[in-house]
Amino acid sequence: MKLPADWSVNNGNDLPPERQAREAILEALGAAPDEVSLDGRLHRFKVEGDSGTEKTGWYVLHGDGVPAGAFGDWRRDITQKWHASLPADLTEEARTLMEEHCRRAQELRDEEIRRRRKRAAETCREIWKNAPEAKREHSYLRRKKIENHGLRMTGDGRLIMPIYIGTELSSLQYIRPDGRKEFHYGGEIGGGYFRIPAAEHPASEAKYIVEGYATGASVHEATGCEVWVALNAGNLGKVGRFLRENLPNAVLAFVADNDESGVGQKKAQEAAEAIGAKVIVPPELGDANDYAAAGKDLRALLLGTKRWILPVSEFCKKPQPIRWLIKNWVQEDALMMAFGAPGAGKTFVVLDMALSIACPQIKDWHGFKVKHGPVVYLAGEGYVGLKARIAGWMTHKNTGSVNMYVSDESVDLNTPGGVRRTVEEIRSYKVAPKLIVVDTLNRFMVGDENKAQDAKTMLDACAALEREFQCTVILVHHTGVAENAQGRARGSSAWRGAMDIELAVTKETDEPLVTLKQTKNKDAEIQPELYLEQVTIDVPGWLDEDGEQITTKVMELSGSVAGEVEKEKTLTKAQHFALQTYIEAASLEGLLDPEGSFRGLTLDAWREVYYRNSSADNAESKRQAFHRARQSLVDLKYLKVQDDIYIPIGIWGTFEKKFLTEQLRAKQSVTERDCHVTRNECHAYNSELLA
Fold it and tell me: Please, what is the Cα angle at 165 between 163 and 171, to 5 degrees?
């Protein structure tokens, strides 16, 4: 039978059990009674911190069978099981009896705690009922530069703060004039709080959770908002859960102490993530009271407003490193946009990013480090396809569940009601998202995306979400229709101006290759283009109404330009020659589509240039060499054929299309200019003849 991990064992076999027990108590608590009795009764003794008649040390030990039991310190909430050294021939019966002793000792301890807490609560209620209101001139309040918000005072000048668990007063905290604090002996404080109610006109509907009274008073005086004092960092989570359970739609924020140890920030962050709240930390060491007392703008810190003109000494006080959700691509606490033409793959790219952030098993996004957290994906359309895409991605990546929440309808986000509904819905899941995706922009806004004022209302809504959850917001949007608008997001220029990062997603028709390009990165260097490939996969277990397999696409890294160049080096001399003649012919006789982009090259035009440059001895040799090289380039996916028109594809094709488009447009412009000149010359000549 395996023993519990928290058993204290003294291996001094030569010592009597009483001595073994006393040494174990002394080692664990730093104090022990002079004599230890193995009589199965609860005994109390003094430990460090006890005064007067206080005895917060305790033990319950049994002597029959293997001596065993438990001991601890009520003030420090320490409980330790103990047994004497075990004989080599310990029987199962003896072991069972020993464990029963420990269980019984725990029961006695728990019973005593309940009695102590009940007596303490009764005493605390009597003290609180009879205590006078604290004077605002109290030295502690003056020194902390705060007011009295419901405290009372003892006869010897200590402030009294009541502690409630649920709706019942359970204990008291005493604050001495010098700031030393102590809890009423025996009172229960786990999950306890002190509440400062909101003023008549608070600055916001937020409810703040803090550690100590001085911090709470400063927060309340700066905002007028409701404040809950949780007594210490370890109690923040319990108070936060109590509030969320009773106020599911409330806006909650933890105001953490900026401790050198980092304990305050860590506990606040853990508590916030558990209930979907935000965390506010003073930018300097100390708590919110220290921040306000130093003359800093606590109200601005709490409400998200700040001075916009600062002395350079404060402006440059310490570096502000960029924080990333996806290194170099998705910035924390930022507003981003991903845009592209219909079918370009923008949703696939953004969904790939979002799922990577939402899935702790994913260490990187195509080679870029990922920071994980909850994701909210606001989808405005294509719900059936979106389900398949998510299921396919999870299957392809072989992941378990992902920390993502998806909408199945859209709202007018740029209205007060739309923002409020979105915030309340997210809060109901008790999460604090790291990323919110709005896909697509036009499905979530009312008004005209081309008008700057309508764009501003949507941008304000996104800023509200970003501020509320301290998260990144990504807008998915379309490109413009006109040729000169293909390289930018559709609508008002206000969109681009507001973005921290802007991503362009492009893809050639019917090609799997997707190009991701940063067109704006406000705080960092623009990244090189990233090439992704849409890979078609089956979604296991997903069949349509005819029983046919449902497929979807996932994004995979296609490679880099350098990788493609390396691939090109493996071509044979004949294949290189064929590609060179293709480019030469296309730059002279290539076809343009109605939008003025390179469409492809006819077989006849390519063959003519190939034959002209070939060093083969006769026409038949040229024909055979051309046929082999042409077919191999198609097989290697450098080219594809449609109606005897040869079209570049892949990464090589992407760059060649751009080059050939520029070449043919320039050639076309020169031709038009020459024709214009010729017409003018003819007109001048005819006029001269007439004269």
Answer: 35
DSSP H helices, 487-560, are 494-498
Q: Which residue(s) pair with 502 in the sheet?
A: 337, 520
pLDDT at residue 685, rounded to an integer: 38
Cα radius of gyration rounded to whole Å, the chain: 37
Parallel, antiparallel or unpaired: strands 78-83 and 152-153: unpaired
Rounded Cα distance, 186 and 120, in Å: 6
DSSP H or E run through 575: helix 573-589
Half-sphere exposure of 376 (CA within 13 A, CB side): 25
List CB contacts of 296: < 8 A, sequence separation 6 or more: 282, 284
Q: Which segments in the chain show pLDDT lower than 70?
A: 1-14, 87-90, 305-308, 314-315, 317-320, 480-487, 509-510, 559-570, 651-652, 654-655, 669-691
Domains of the chain: 7-115 (no CATH), 131-303 (3.40.1360.10), 324-558 (3.40.50.300), 562-674 (1.10.10)
Phi, psi of 50 (to 5 degrees): -75, 145
Tokens of residue 372, six digits: 């994980």
- Coil, strand or helix at 104: helix
Q: Is 317 helix (H, G, I), strand (E, B) or coil?
A: coil
Tell me the two tokens of residue 434. Answer: 């790291």
Q: Please tell me the chain's helix, strand, coil percentages from 3-state DSSP, rounded to the nearest 5.
A: 40, 25, 35
608 vs 620: CA distance, rounded Å:
14
Check if the beta carbon of residue 212 is closer than 8 Å to that of residue 149: no
Q: The whole model's pTM is what?
A: 0.49
Give the per-residue pLDDT at 567.
44
